[in-house]
């Protein structure tokens, strides 16, 4: 029996309806399904080798975490509910780390796969001379291992873990996990943590759809989406609506959808020792970024441009092939290089950014093959020699809202460490108020309020205090009401605006601007489409990105 009075049980051979008969027992208040929860990582591409130098992940720069100093004396602690933390990676301040085991999943400090170790590194990897640096380097962390070998846990595990986080003195709970279906026991546990002044952060999910995942979908939990290094939304990042209900029962609640995003595409962090694959490449002695495709080994040779490598080429003999993308697979390109006598292959992207990939399950090649960025194409083509090395590493790349979530958790701790008179809800509001608007103007279902910015949040709290501007939507009191109805069979929506900065506002329907109208008058949108449907509106100050929260009307 847990301290909050709940127990998880299995009833073999009985369905849920049969089990609910136990409610006749006066000592039982509630029976509900124990929902499954799983880790959220969309895919991973191992690359990079920070084994001999400190490497700062792009999300640190993107979120301004490098512009704010972590106050280690503030006593901040992040509780990570995940798959554990492997002690073989030395890029942590181990004196600041503790943990609990849960649900028979093994010790928290034993290898449960790379997921939990990667998450922990993003939050708090040490600022030393090697490896990566976390958002809040060296922060106190408490690990709770809730996942079994198959990567599954249950909502009751998370409810119990929330109690353990509280008992450990954590300020923040970070969960890169989720699943379908709400559970009141789980929801109540996180609400209790928030009511006590804490902050709970969880991943939106990686299915690229508008399904609401839990625990991120609870109002007490801050839902996090993922963006890439170019400020684009990740194609896998889920985007549930902020609106529930239909007709007159429509309700909009920004706490049940994505609130902010952070870097979650190809993010570099800690791995259990030797579990990641790393690629290193130099051209004429200068280091260039690369991603490991296949085949460990180390080679150095003269550069030979092989075009798109769609046939063998005797000029490649004894050289490192530099290859453009074309009409055949990565595997066949590398095979043609090797069959021509080539000793290594570098395949260059045909668009900005790194080329990630593999040579497939039936790889029959043996020479080291790496991907390279389009931006480095000119330098690689002009080089006389290229050296390629592929081996194991303690650091690797992963992608998912699982990676964005610890970035926000660590950043929240970083900001909070300099304003520890605030509570978790106030830190949550500050992050939203200062996020960089991305995507469609104003708040949207993909980015929420935008990409988190540590320095901006720190300055906001310094200028405005923990309570910010005293209430209202983050960033101001500009609001809009939306009333949908039918008149003689025609769908109409009346929009009324309050708190606009100027005399006119831009009105958006489903992400597209439909008109500019007076801020002091009610605007009626007449919808010509037949049948039912849902329409999402927002208003922005004329020509600006200062916007109201979205309102959805369903017919």
From TrEMBL:
Record GO terms (molecular function): metal ion binding; serine-type endopeptidase activity
An individual GO BP term: proteolysis
Pfam name, any one: Peptidase_S8
Keywords from the named record: Hydrolase, Metal-binding, Protease, Serine protease
Record domain Peptidase S8/S53: where: 74-271, 365-450
Entry GO CC: extracellular space
CDD domains reported in the protein's UniProt record: PA_VapT_like (cd04817), Peptidases_S8_Subtilisin_subset (cd07477)
InterPro entries assigned: Peptidase_S8/S53_dom, Peptidase_S8/S53_dom_sf, Peptidase_S8_Asp-AS, Peptidase_S8_His-AS, Peptidase_S8_Ser-AS, Peptidase_S8_subtilisin-like, Peptidase_S8_subtilisin-rel, Subtilisin_Carlsberg-like
SUPFAM superfamilies referenced in this protein's UniProt entry, alphabetically: Subtilisin-like (SSF52743)
Family to which this protein belongs: Belongs to the peptidase S8 family.
PANTHER family per record: CEREVISIN-RELATED, PEPTIDASE S8
Record-given protein name: Alkaline serine protease, subtilase family protein
